[in-house]
Design a protein that fits this description.
By secondary structure, the chain is mostly helical. It is built from 22 helices and 2 strands. It is globular, with a radius of gyration of 22 Å. The N and C termini lie far apart (about 60 Å).
Amino acid sequence: MELIDFGAVGLALGILGTSWVPWAVIIPGLFAGLAGGALPGISGTMIIALMLPFTLYMDFFTAVMFLTSVFTGAGFGGAIPAILINTPGTTASVSTAFDGFPMSRQGRHNEALGIGLAASTIGTFISYLVLFLLINYASWAVLKLGPFEMAMVAIWGITMIATLRGGNFERGILAGIFGLMIGTIGIGPTGQMRGTFGFAELLDGIPVVPAMIGLLATAELFNLARSRYIVEKQEDRVISFSRILQGFAGVREYWKTLLRGSIIGVFVGAIPGVGASVANLISYADARRVSDDPDSFGKGNPNGVVASESANSSSEGGAMATLLALGLPGGGGTAVLLAAFAMHNITGGPRFIADNKDIVYAILFGNMVQCLLLVIVGLLFIRIAVIIVKVPILYLVPSVIVLAMAGSYALIGNIMGPLTLAVFSIVGWLFARYEFAPPAAVVGLLLGAFVERQFVYSHQISGGDLSFIFGRPIALVMLALLIASIAYPAMKNYLRARRSLRVG
């Protein structure tokens, strides 16, 4: 199997130069994705779905260019409210808020947004470059991952609960367990109903996005209510395009985190059902574990923003690999893209790649160009969005609450959205007050149902025989890496304490 089909690459370049129409839809798509991602409660998946009808009368390649540009824009759009108001626009930006918002509170909002845009752009570009090089092997690699391997990847994300942003370890674990429990409410993978208390509205589980916004945003909104502005000092409320550019260029200082996060995002994004929601958490946890100063995470460490944004954006390329190679959606966004494929009577999978390599390569090249255009469009969008730091808290807090309520209603389609937001706002405030780490609960909520499904499938496949793990080399390697990732920071802390005792 050859690495790159250069004949197909030449045909792809011909497709890209045939018409200007596919290029014309990219910038509107990026703006739509940025705007949708930046509105709390309006997920990237929702904005892509809203744009789907516009592609009905486009040719296949133009439709894919438009929808993937929306996908690319939404990948960074969610970071803007996460950084400025501690309210992730999407579940993929949860860990962006951990250090992005503290940077804003310190008057470093321009830098944080510039760093986030650079990490998102470069992460996406790396993912499509990797996909370009490995597309012929993608279907083979993804098929090697079974439910147990997928569960291991998700647990990797859950292990961050113990170390998430420092704080009280035991209460962080309890908050994570709480998240795991509420994440399994509804009908389970074997058909049982759990934790619904007789409410039919809970059969599909707790609505994740409204619960996430409630857990993460409300406690901070109460804290903000005691301030006049997000940034206390007037001299720090400067909106500086040059500082945004400095932050963008300064991402090179964090190149190790950027590269590691991009690689994590590609491989996690390629696993069906996992996607950016898990990739950003795993990358953030990994960055914190290998850091020489892990306690600085959660207090405004730019590495946290880089780790999260590079991973959630690079997961786009991984999800596209699964879509193109297997015809399976890696997440919500690629599920909408799969619908677009169906609208044009196209079916993804190994046969599609074999018969249409020129179109596949053209899509990959087009998405690389989107990354370059995202730099320009993203900088313009940031320049407008950053004005929020000048809005008095008196007007900002109620506006955010109204937008979150409206977004929750639009997302769920009934009153359950706003009610979930209200209930988890109270829970989030109580958790923050008593140091129970609301982000840990969010991690558990995001991953609980997925982990349960994968373990049930593994049990069904193995018949309950644990020895089947020894016949899966990939699972053994992932299990060893998981154990090492938990043991390494514990050993490092132990050795550091020993050295301190000797010095003392």
